[in-house]
Structures are given as C-alpha cells and as structure tokens.
Design a protein that fits this description.
11 strands; alpha/beta; two-stranded antiparallel ribbon; globular; 7-stranded mixed sheet
Length: 771
C-alpha cells in the first residue's frame, strides 16, 4: 500500500504542476521524505505529513480522501476530515493507530527514545550542577502572559473545533511550574520571551529536567537545540534537528527503522520535543524565514527569544502558529534580599549574621524622593547581572559591593553592567582551583575575545572544537594544511628512506631528495584534496559518529562497502595518476632524458601508480567501512569526550590504514608491473623499491589522510599548531576550554561549548575588535 500512496502523491503533485523542491517549500516536508514516499522507500506516512502535503497541494475534498485512503489501508470513504484535524496528536497523547509504524519499528523507536531520555536527563543534571543553579537555591524566575499582539488565536492554541468559544489560558507561573505550564497548553507550543539575562536558558534547562522527571513513555523527549545556529534558507527544520541530534548524541547516527538514521526516525516520528533556545541570536535576515518554517511545521516545541527580536519577526510575517507566549518578569528587591545575603561571607564581627550585601540592599530600599532609583536596582533586576555581581563581590574578600552605589563611578545602568562584565573574567581567573592550571587573566581575556569574535564572524553561538580553524580564511586553512601535511610526510619519507638506504648501502642524499620531493608533492596533493572536498563545497569536517571495532562483529551502520570502494578507488587513482606523472618527470630529469622520453616516463608511471594507489585505497576504504560501528546513544557527550573519541577513531584508522594500505601498494606494485610488463615497455621494480614504496605509502598516506581529511587532524594542524603559533589561542587549547567551562565562563551544550551568556560573548567580541 506504500506504493499506492506514492503513486497517488506523485500524480497529485504533477497535476498541481509542482516539483518536489517546490512542494517542500510549500509544506516544510523535506525533499528526502517526499522522494521516499513517492518511491515507496518510506511507508506508513504520519497523518501530520499527509495533512501538510494535502494542504500544500490545495486538494479538493475527493482528492484529499483518495490520498488519505492510500495512506491508511482499509479506511472507509468519507473520512477526509481525519486528515484535516489539528495535528498529529494532542500534547502528551499517543499518535493515532493509523500513523503507527510496524510493531517492530515502533518498539525500536520507543527503546531509542527511552535511551535518549536517559542521556538528556544525565547531561542537563550535570550542567545544572556545574552552573550552580541550586547554590543556594534557584533565582525566582517568574512570568506572565505576553501581549495579545504576539499571541495566536486562543481557539488555535486550545485546539478547539470551529465555532467553539475560546477563553484565554491562565499562563502565569514561576520556575518550578514550567513543565506544568507547558502541559496546560493543548497545542504543545510555548514561546518564552524575556530581555537579555532574564533567565530564558535556565528556564529551558529546568523545563527539560522537570518534563523528563514526569514524562510518560508516550510523550516525546525534550531536547535543547541552540536555534541561533540554524540557517533556515539552507536546510529544513527537520533535517537540521536530525543533524544537531546526531552531533550531540552520536549514537543516533546508527541505522533506524526504514533505513534512515535513528535521529531522523525519532524526529520524523514526533518522539523529539524541540526546545529551541535563542531565537534572538539568529542573524537579522534569518528570523523571518525561520518563523515561516516553524509555522509550516506541525511539531510541538518550546521557543525562547528576546521580545524585540520576536516582535520584529512577527511583524514581518505572523505569530508562531498555535503558540502561547509568556514573558519573563524582573526580579524584585525582595528577591534580592532573600538571595544575595545567602551567597556571601559574613564580615561584621558585631553582627555575625550580617554579610557584605546587607547594607547595600538597605540603601536600595531607602526612599529618595529627590533623585531617581539607584542604577544598581535596575541592573540587579535580571538573573544574569545578579550572578555576575555575586561572582565579583560575593565570592571575593577584596571587593566591596558598596562601591556599586557610587553614582560618580557608575552614573547609569549601562556603566554598571559594563563594569560587571569587565570584572567577571579577572575575578574568575584570579580564583585558584585545586589541581587546575593557573592562567594569566590578561592572556585568558585575549584568547576568549578571539573565540567570541570567531563565533560572531561565523554567526553561531556554538563553539565547536572542530570549527576553531574556520575563523581563518579558506586560503589560509588550505595552505597551512598543505604545509604541515607536506612537512610531516616529507620528514617521515626521509627517515624511512634513510633507514632503508643505510641497510642496503644506499645514499643519504638520495633519501633526503626523495623526502623533499615526496613532501612537496604529497603536501600539494593533500592540500588540493582538502580544498576540493571542504573549501569548494563549503562543508565542515565533522567528528566521526562511529568508532572502529577490530575485535568482534561490528554493528551495522549506514555506510556500505560498495560506496567506500568506489570513492576510495577513484580518489586513490587520481592521486596515483598525478603522483606517478610527477615522479616520472623527476626521474627523467635526473637521467637527463629528452622531452619525449620524460613525457613517456611520466605517462607510464602515472598508469602504474594510478592502478596501484586506486586499488590500495579502495580496499583500505572498504575495510575501514566494514570495521565501523555506531556509538552508544547513552554515551556521555561533551566537547572533551567527543574530541577524545574522534582522536581514538582517527588513530585507529591510522593504525589500520598504514599496514593495510602499505601492503596493498607494495604487493599491488608487483602485480601491476607483472601484468603490464611488455605492454608499456620494460618495467623494473626491485624488492627494495617495492618495500620502500609500500612502507612510505602506508605511513605517509595514513598520515596525510589523518591531517587533512579528519576533524582531529585539522584540530592538530590548525588549533594545536597554527592558532597558538600566531598567538590567537594557547598551546593547550583543550585544557584552556575545559578550564573556562569549570570557571563558569563557558557552558556545555552537548558536543560544543557556548559562552555563559550571549551578552558576555558580544562584550568580549567588541573588546577584541577594539584591540
């Protein structure tokens, strides 16, 4: 019946005169999904997907019934209204039986969702502890209903039938009630608005933990996504969610039901509840298309944003469909009275219960009819500024918060906020952490300023270790990669050739010349491959979502041996042709041969080495593909753990690549020379030359592949060598980033770091540009 649905869908689409790409833009369903449905590779379409397709095609009632009957075998006529309902499910409900996948697939997805829920809960519990949210207790974040101009019709929010009377929901609440507030919204769509530093991210974190603690197996798993990193003009929402889920939970890259990844299956099945944090952090020109894409989708979600940015996007297009918005309110003096004194030391011997903040808070409460309210009261109305003030003045004995009341030093709120931001880094880097390395505060500020500027240039809040080099110009990255790779391979070649020369009465000069030639050629060729693979296409080198299992039977992954064999053979053949032709010319020059002879030698060596390297690379790629196995969903993921896992995968690939590729090249050279003997003239390949070719090719090829085409290799080349060499970052980059996280400057969001707050990032970036 999936084939019948695909044929009906294709016919109706063609009758509407739409391509698959045009249909995607109308309904928000990815081209991949539409193509899979039309070809029958994707069966049992979800009712929400059928509804989106029917609405986008503007079907008449009889055509809508036909599409619905094709999607649900055995459905009687006259049921088209089922496809026109409000969505795939009510919030927290079980999907209708018609859209359920096969029992085995449904069980696999349910199991994957439970394991994902465990991983998400463990991650954000650790993050809450790291951010000291419960020390001594969470700041009282409260909210009220947002203005009606930012609110959709209450009938849509409450999922009411036509003609029913709609009454606004009471959405007021506080931090510990956020999960229940969300569940009270029938549409399952909530927008959290708040000004900079008002606690939106903390609220999103608490929502995830509270929702998971009371979640039933039928409910989707809330997962936080930093929406500021999404470009809706380049990738659809569902594909981006799948990509981010794979990044932060590499185990979801494993094959799931229907032949797609587990991440794609979980998103498509509605088992992921996106918590989209930071709508205001998107580039100005992307918010409108982002809001339009969110309106085209039907999945439940929670979205956070500053009010002004959200209101501007709404004015340009429309409110978020069926979403109930709430707006965070400011902290009060009572909140400060309860919180700040409990965070500081006790300094008054005459009053042991008094702390450094007591006199300051009393001053803020004193009536002052002749002057406006103190700027400090305005500044301390957001959780961000309260946490900064606590860090600078509560945790250090040499700072007195009474100085914050000096209107001569701080005439306005802006000056006070700048003061707190300026003093945050010096304060946290003066504090000594047991067993941790001490960093110079000025250097740390300069390095963090470069990182903030780097993220601003990339227009993303995500500080990914594998993208640190992307702040450099593309030409610089390519040249540095070629130089470092060529130098490493040249030194390796010279060392191996020298050892073999010493053992076989060869010349040291010949070994050094060979190392120089090979280093130049290999560096140039690997630099070219890197440029063609990533720079031209604009792709990022991402960490491997798999590991290699040498012992035991690897689990099935989405990779197959066939594509690896083809890609490896073609790539190796191109390398061998270029390398062989240059080697032939070099030999001809050394023998002082004429132009015709030089071209002939280059042609012969190109054919021989093209076959040798093509076959060796194809076989090696194929073997690496067969050894890959997906990571576990519940594996702890942090930037450091992803770096360590990718390093382990790269080193294992190198350990497998070198002997396999070297053996394949050495033996392959004997075989190719024997097969082509006489066809291309007399060919000579002695045992020493074959051994040298195999050893150098195995080690050099593995090293070149690792440095130029893997995330860990590029991390070594750019982040561990070039950026520290030019003073942009410290030599111990990973240690510095982890230390910044421990000090509270950075936070973890799965596999990436982010600055503690976008306000801190922009402040550091501006300071970096001024310097």
């Amino acid at each position: 019946m999936a084939g019948e649905f695909g044929m009906v869908l294709r016919r109706l689409r063609e009758e509407a005169g739409l391509t698959q790409e045009e249909l995607e833009r109308r309904c928000g369903v990815s081209v991949r999904t539409i193509r899979g449905l039309e070809t029958g590779k994707r069966g049992n379409p979800r009712m929400s997907t059928v509804q989106q397709l029917a609405d986008a095609l503007a079907l008449r009632s009889e055509d809508r019934e036909e599409l619905l009957r094709a999607a649900i075998p055995g459905l009687p006529g006259g049921s088209a209204g089922a496809a026109g309902g409000p969505g795939p499910r009510e919030a927290g409900g079980e999907p209708p039986a018609a859209e359920q996948p096969a029992p085995a697939a449904r069980h696999a997805l349910a199991e994957a969702a439970e394991r994902l829920a465990e991983a998400v809960a463990a991650r954000w519990q650790r993050e809450e502890e790291q951010r000291r949210i419960q020390d001594p207790y969470p700041l009282p974040v409260r909210w009220k209903a947002a203005p009606e101009t930012l609110t959709d019709h209450w009938a849509n929010i409450r999922r009411l039938p036509p003609g029913a009377a709609s009454i606004p929901l009471n959405l007021s609440g506080r931090l510990e009630q956020i999960a229940q507030t969300y569940r009270n919204v029938p549409s399952g769509r909530l927008v959290v608005l708040g000004r900079s530093g008002s606690g939106k991210t903390i609220l999103a974190l608490r929502f995830v933990l509270d929702h998971l603690s009371s979640r039933t197996p039928a409910e989707p798993v809330p997962v936080i996504f930093s929406i500021g990193a999404w470009d809706p003009t380049a990738i659809t929402l569902r594909d981006w969610l799948t990509e981010q889920l794979t990044r932060d939970h590499p185990g979801t890259a494993a094959r799931g039901p229907g032949g797609v990844s587990l991440a794609a299956a979980l998103v498509d099945a509605g088992r992921v509840l996106p918590v989209l944090d930071g709508f205001d952090e998107m580039a100005d020109g992307l918010r409108r298309p982002a809001l339009e894409a969110l309106n085209a989708a039907t999945l439940p979600l929670l979205l956070t944003s500053r009010p002004a940015e959200y209101a501007t996007a709404v004015a340009e297009t429309d409110v978020l469909t069926s979403a109930a918005p709430i707006e965070l309110t400011d902290l009060t003096l009572d909140d400060l009275d309860h919180y700040l004194p409990r965070t500081t030391r006790k300094t008054d011997p005459a009053d042991p219960a008094a702390g450094a903040w007591d006199s300051v808070l009393r001053k803020l409460r004193e009536p002052s009819p002749d002057r406006p309210a103190a700027p400090l009261a305005t500044v301390l109305s957001t959780p961000l500024m309260v946490s900064l003030a606590r860090t600078v003045y509560s945790d250090t004995p040499d700072h007195d918060p009474a100085s914050l009341l000096d209107t001569g030093l701080f005439p306005g709120a802006e000056e006070l906020e700048a003061h707190l931001l300026d003093n945050f880094l010096p304060t946290v880097y003066r504090l000594r952490r047991p067993g941790a390395r001490d960093w110079d505060p000025d250097r740390a500020r300069r390095w963090l300023g470069y990182l903030a500027h780097h993220l601003t240039e990339l227009k993303t809040p995500d500080l990914a270790w594998w993208r640190l080099g992307n702040g450099l110009r593309a030409s610089t990255r390519t040249v540095v990669t070629a130089l470092v790779t060529g130098l490493a391979i040249g030194l390796l070649d010279a060392a191996v050739a020298s050892a073999i020369a010493a053992a076989t009465d060869g010349t040291l000069a010949g070994a050094l010349l060979d190392g120089t030639v090979v280093g130049l050629l290999a560096g140039g060729l690997f630099g070219l491959v890197h440029w063609l693979t990533y720079t031209v296409t604009g792709k990022d080198i991402r960490p491997a979502a798999v590991r290699l299992r040498i012992r035991g039977r690897p689990e099935t992954t989405t990779w197959t041996a066939g594509p690896r064999l083809v890609i490896g053979t073609l790539g190796g053949a191109l390398f061998g042709l270029a390398y062989g032709f240059v080697v032939g010319l070099v030999h001809a020059y050394g023998w002082k041969a004429g132009l015709a002879s030089a071209l002939y030698l280059g042609f012969v060596d190109a054919i021989v080495l093209g076959l040798v390297y093509g076959g060796g690379t194809g076989l090696t790629f194929c073997l690496l593909g067969l050894l890959e196995t997906p990571l576990d969903i519940v594996s702890a993921v942090s930037p450091r753990s992803v770096l360590n896992a990718d390093r382990g995968t790269a080193l294992t690939q190198l350990a497998v690549w070198a002997p396999v590729f070297g053996t394949a090249v050495g033996l392959g050279a004997w075989l190719v020379v024997d097969l082509l003997q006489g066809h291309l003239g007399p060919l000579v390949l002695g045992p020493t030359a074959s051994l040298t070719l195999g050893v150098i090719s195995g080690a050099g090829g593995a090293l070149g592949y690792t440095l130029s085409l893997t995330a860990w290799g590029q991390w070594c080349v750019l982040s561990r060598i070039w950026l520290p060499l030019t003073g942009r970052l410290p030599w111990a980059v990973a240690t510095f980033l982890d230390d910044a996280y421990q000090r509270g400057v950075l936070r973890q969001a799965g596999a990436v770091y982010q600055f503690r707050h976008a306000r801190l990032q922009s402040h550091l970036a501006r300071a970096h540009r001024r310097e």
